[in-house]
Amino acid sequence: MTVRIVSYNILVPKYANRPEYYHKCQPEFLQFNHRWNLIESELKNEIVRYENSIICLQEVSLTILPQLELFFRRMNYSFFHNLYGRAHDDYMGVGLAIPLSMELTSISMIKIGDRIQSRIKLREKYASFYAWDGIYINML
Q1: 65-74 and 32-49 are packed helices; what angle lies between their axes, rounded to 10 degrees?
Q2: Is beta strand 93-99 parallel, antiparallel or unpaired with respect to 53-60?
Q3: Is residue 59 a contact partner of residue 91, using CB atoms and an 8 Å limit?
């Protein structure tokens, strides 16, 4: 089976309400209803055109979550999300949509920033630093 993986940044609606950041964008493209119609159309075309698309979404937010869940349910997809933000960014997070026809045995949501921070702390705790000619060598 061939699987296609695509990723879209759908822009948190709260951020789209700041036209000063998107001065090169036509105002109608920042309006939520117009953007939702475009997002829905693009996702539908992806699903219809390619039988086994796994769809990754960035900047999923609480505002748009109900529409996404209903859309993917209608398209016979499972939709998983992790909203990790705070109120100021409408609890922004990520989403993953997988066709119901694919057997999913497990799923994990890993925040890469948390993973990097824990590795840095571990490295700082156990690392020995040696300097040679102004070059620092980190040895674990």
Answers
A1: 30
A2: antiparallel
A3: no
Question: Are 109 and 96 in contact, with CB atoms under 8 Å apart?
Answer: no
Rounded CA-CA distance 138/50 in Å is 47
Paired tokens of 7: 């990723």
For residue 50, the number of C-alpha atoms closer than 13 Å in the C-beta half-sphere is 14
Amino acid type, 4: R
- Distance, in Å, from the CA atom of 118 to the CA atom of 88, rounded to the nearest integer, reads 26
Name the band, by pLDDT with cuts 50, 70 and 90, for residue 126: low
**Does the structure show a pLDDT above 90 at 1?**
no
Extract long-range pairs of 46-52: CB within 8 Å, 24+ residues apart: 46/6, 47/75, 47/77, 47/99, 50/4, 51/99, 52/1, 52/2, 52/3, 52/4, 52/99, 52/101, 52/102
Single pTM value for the model: 0.78
pLDDT for 38-90, tens place per residue?
999 999 999 999 989 999 999 999 999 999 999 999 999 999 999 988 999 99
